Amino acid sequence: MELRHLRYFVAVAQTQNFTRAAEMLGISQPPLSQQILRLEREIGTPLLKRLTRGVALTEAGSAFYQDACQIVALADHALEKARGIARGISGQLSLGFASSVAFHPAVFQLLRDVRARYPALELLTREENMASLMEDLQDGLLDAAFIRLPCESSKAFNLKVIATERMLIALSASHPLSGSPSLSLSQLIGEQMIMFPREVAPSLYELVISSCLRAGFHPDALLQSPQIASSLGMVAAGCGFSIVPESMTCISHPHVRFHPISGNTLFTDVALAWRRNNPSVAVRHLIGLLAEQQETGKSTS
Length: 301
Known about the structure:
WH-like_DNA-bd_sf; transcription regulation; alpha/beta; rod-shaped; D-Maltodextrin-Binding Protein, domain 2
């Protein structure tokens, strides 16, 4: 039994007429009648009653029609699903996020654009530290990842910078310097510094520490927070200060103040990373939307 035989039978059953069914299928009537007879012989019982004008289903034909409709519908669904995945408009897209990257408005906008352009594409997301992201991306557990640069291990992947943002000093609102419009790192000598663990983002960690050393501030005693975002809770509690990306200011906390760094040369890039060999069609769509986003940004600036 072939799938086309089921399609032929369903068409005849729905139209109750061989001529109309043949027109709908785009074939001539005699071959259609022959295929239905062949199907009936294969099943071993008539499915249709041949009437003077048209046809009607036999009892066996009615039962067979219900199942045939389901089989044809499932086949059509499987076909469209496979084609959709091949075109990158359906299926799944697995995305990883480094800590705090998801707070950046450009990343928010890119995800909104993906949902709007490809509503059938299921986004699977998870947040991990940089080392885990790069490992999962290499192992194929992620299709792409939103990361922070600098990141030494990211050099093994294709990278597209989404945005560059400055780093800010986060202070408790009760700190004596919290009213200052900007601060230099040297003003914080002797203060407790709150940092994410080095393994979360080794290169960014070294960049921050190096900037402190150049300012004459040697962070001997560091308080660790699990992630960049979680450091703000410790700042609010008066445990010390932290240096965070500017996009973290979207986390409004009544007991935290953000300050630009005087003469700041401390910046971090938000980037999209993906494997160099054979990215999926869905990833190529993501890259294309990012290019559109950046082109729109240029034209409006």
